[in-house]
Amino acid sequence: MISEIVAITHTTPIGKVFDENHICGVFDSDVILHKVLEFFVTYNVDAVIIMEKSYPVGILTHKEMLRAIYNYDNTGLPVKEFMTAPLKTFDTSTSIADVIDAMQELSFDKIVVHNEKNIIGIIDKRHLLSLCYTHITPLIKHEYNMVQSLMGLVGQDEHDLLKMATTDTLTGIGNRRLFEEIFQAHQSLGDRYDVNLFLLLLDIDNFKSINDTFGHNVGDSVLKELAHLITKSIRKSDIFVRWGGEEFAILLRYSDPIAVMKIADQIRKRIDQNSFETIVHVTCSFGLTSILPNDLMEDVFERADKALYRAKADGKNTVRMEIP
């Protein structure tokens, strides 16, 4: 069985979705189909894993089994004749977010989870997404539904006012007030849900000269296009706001700072390589810091600002990190 997890976040290791009694059929590729059929009938599973030399090489699904036994003569053939291959495997420590991201690129939707010694289980993308939504934590609910829930308690006029109060009117992304609310929610829930939080500040390099040279209309166009570009470069669970002027802030949850540094550098490169509609080339500098459970927002931003200042001093268009 799939484990009934009390809380799932995108950083939860994929191995946590399987309990100790999870039934996982594992067969050598030369085993005859009839032996595998007995397993399907006995345990009512929807797929089994096919191995060669102790390594998973394919999957045989319930539907594939039915097609195979349509011709009775097939039951004496080796299971490798009917399996689906290739196969994607993930270590139990891989985060659910990373698994889902990787599955987006696959032509098949079932993957195998293993540790160093054993096959742990098999799961498909639809089931994994269903688990995430069914057992979503209050932390994730707050991120996705905070504004909508508040809006449900007020009339249409107040609804519009609340949306205006938490949205940056120029770029359409969140504003400082929204960030502050979500930051406080993260800090109050962080200890309970074992998440690692990071703040990434980014500032457009030489933005004043853009306004002075091309005018504020062009500057506004750059801000809007940049916001759109970054929104496409991060996950929906990441909180992205315009902090003020040409400065933006992103609140992220990842397993370690190295992963966040890579994400920040990917965003930096995407901006550097993008051809903006108005002035073609724009770069940004980035300041990153991790967030401790008892951190005040002012302290976090002070560290991120120091990292951002170092990025500017080191030639701009780069990423620097300030360790707490």
Q: What is the structure about, briefly put?
A:
The chain is an alpha/beta fold. It has helices at 33-43, 62-69, 96-103, 125-134, 138-151, 156-166, 176-193, 207-214, 216-233, 257-273, 297-313, and strands spanning 26-28, 47-52, 55-61, 89-91, 110-114, 119-124, 197-204, 239-244, 247-253, 284-291, 319-322. It is elongated, with a radius of gyration of 25 Å.
Key traits:
2 domains, 19% strand, CBS-domain, alpha/beta, elongated, three-stranded mixed β-sheet, single chain, disordered N terminus, 11 strands, Alpha-Beta Plaits, five-stranded mixed β-sheet, 324 residues
Number of domains: 2
Order of helices and strands: EHEEHEHEEHHHHEHHEEHEHE
* Shape field: elongated
Oligomer: single chain
Strand content: 15-25%
Give an account of the 3D structure.
By secondary structure, this protein is an alpha/beta fold. The chain folds into 2 domains: 14-134, CBS-domain; 138-322, Reverse transcriptase/Diguanylate cyclase domain (Alpha-Beta Plaits, 2-Layer Sandwich). 43% of the residues lie in helices and 19% in strands. The protein is built from 11 helices and 11 strands. The chain has helices at 33-43, 62-69, 96-103, 125-134, 138-151, 156-166, 176-193, 207-214, 216-233, 257-273, 297-313, and strands spanning 26-28, 47-52, 55-61, 89-91, 110-114, 119-124, 197-204, 239-244, 247-253, 284-291, 319-322. The strands form 3 sheets. Strands 8-9-7-10-11 form a 5-stranded mixed sheet, sandwiched between helices. Strand 10 (284-291), helix 11 and strand 11 form a beta-alpha-beta unit. The longest helix has 18 residues, at 176-193. The protein starts with 25 loop residues before the first strand and ends with a strand. Residues 1-6, 136-147 and 153-159 have low confidence and may be disordered.
